[in-house]
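The records we work with from here on pair a chain with its fold. Taken together, the tokens spell out the fold as the letters spell out the chain. To see the layout at work, look at the sequence and tokens printed below.
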Amino acid sequence: MYRARIEVSLKSGHSDPEGEMTAQSLKELKFSAKNVSVSKVYTVFFEAESREKAEEAVEEMCRRLLANPTKDNYRFEIEEAK
């Protein structure tokens, strides 16, 4: 059993309305937020034959569903789940 922590964020140059709104709200609350970006984090528990197969599976999850390659970057960490 493996656990993957997958973070999906917007590539540079893409509009992030949620981040912009959050930055504005923080400024209104008197915080000196210059820039805010929003990311999604997925935690996925799954079975795989090996760590290598687990990494291949997570890459495929990201490419096929979790991230849009046109506008998103992603990174992940995998560890054996107990």
In short: Strands lie at 2-10, 39-46, 72-80. The first helix runs from residue 17 to 28. Helices lie at 17-28, 51-66.
